[in-house]
Each structure stands twice: as structure tokens, then as C-alpha cells.
Amino acid sequence: MSVNEQHSVDETSDREILISRLYAPRELIWSAWTDPRHIVHWWGPTGFRTTIEVMDVRPGGVWKHVMHGPDGRDFPNQCVFLEVVKPERLVYSHGGGRKGDPEAQFEATWTFVLEGHGTRVTNRMLFKSKEERDRVAEFYGAIEGGRQTLERLAGYLLAVDSSNSPAPWRAPR
């Protein structure tokens, strides 16, 4: 990493939330993340379920979904994919939140990096300001919710990877 790259990371560290976890295999993770038939089984914190309205995973494509909280509240979300590099990285702009409350707006970068025998999944949410990051972290519980989402992904990957059915996770080609 160059000095300039390090400097830019330091300038944003107070505006970001970074959550990471190690999984395996990368193609399985990519399919679970980009196929609406799979993401509905694990997206969101514990107790949430997700309805996908549209999921067009390509640069400029829109992902509209509603997260339904365990308390019955709905959280409509709209994301626009900025970058899609299969199976390494997804970048999207995010807008959404609980109906009637201020939106959570940020840029999300998901990376899927091979590490040993597994894949490190990292979600980096970059906000316009430290104050906005802090508000979303407190109001929406974004840090714990992100951890729970990655935990749900782990459970889903374990279930589909250890299933005896023929590769249920493979996305159609």
C-alpha cells in the first residue's frame, strides 16, 4: 500500500464501520450474496426477514428490498451497484431506513478475499461524516446488526455447503 492510500484510509476511519469474518469457498459466498433466491435466507440481523423487490447485480443495477423487523416494522432499502467484480468485490450506494425515520445513507464495499483455505468477507460502510456514522450505528444498531448478518450468512453457508443435495448454492450460468 502506498503512502497516499494509507493516508486516504486514515482520513475516512472515523466515518466508517468495518465488519469482517472468515468463511469458505468464495464461489459459494458470491452465489449466496448475489442471488435473490439465497440472500433472502440470511440478509439482515437476527429475527429479520427480507423481501426482494428487484436485485440487478451489475454496475448501475438496482437492489430494492424491504427488511422486516421482528417487531413488525419495515425497513425499505434501495441500493445502486457501483462496482461488481465477480467474485471479488461489490460496491453499492445505500439509502433506506425505518419508515418515518431518517434514512441511513452510505457507500458499502463488500470484499471476498481468499485467505488460507477460506474467504475473508469484509463489509465496509463509508458515511459522509463521523456524525452520520455514529447516528446510524446508534439509531439502527448497524455494528451489531452487521455482525449478526455475517453470523446468519455463516449459518446459511454451512447449511447449503454441507447439504447432500447437488450444489444448491450454484447460481445459474
Structural descriptors:
single chain, 173 residues, alpha+beta, 5 helices, 31% helix, disordered N terminus, disordered C terminus
Description:
This protein is globular. Strand 4 and strand 5 form a beta hairpin. The protein is built from five helices and seven strands, in the order αβααββββββαα. By secondary structure, it is α+β, with helices and mostly antiparallel strands. Strands 1-7-6-5-4-3-2 form a seven-stranded antiparallel beta sheet. It starts with a helix and ends in a 12-residue tail after the last helix.
Using only C-alpha atoms, the radius of gyration works out to 16 Å
Oligomer: single chain
Helix count equals 5
* Overall average residue pLDDT: 85
Gross geometry: globular
Biggest sheet overview: 7 strands, antiparallel
- State the share of residues found in helices, binned by percent: 25-40%
Helix/strand-derived class?
Answer: alpha+beta
The H/E string reads: HEHHEEEEEEHH
The end-to-end span amounts to: 35 Å
Determine the strand fraction and express it as a percent band: 35-45%
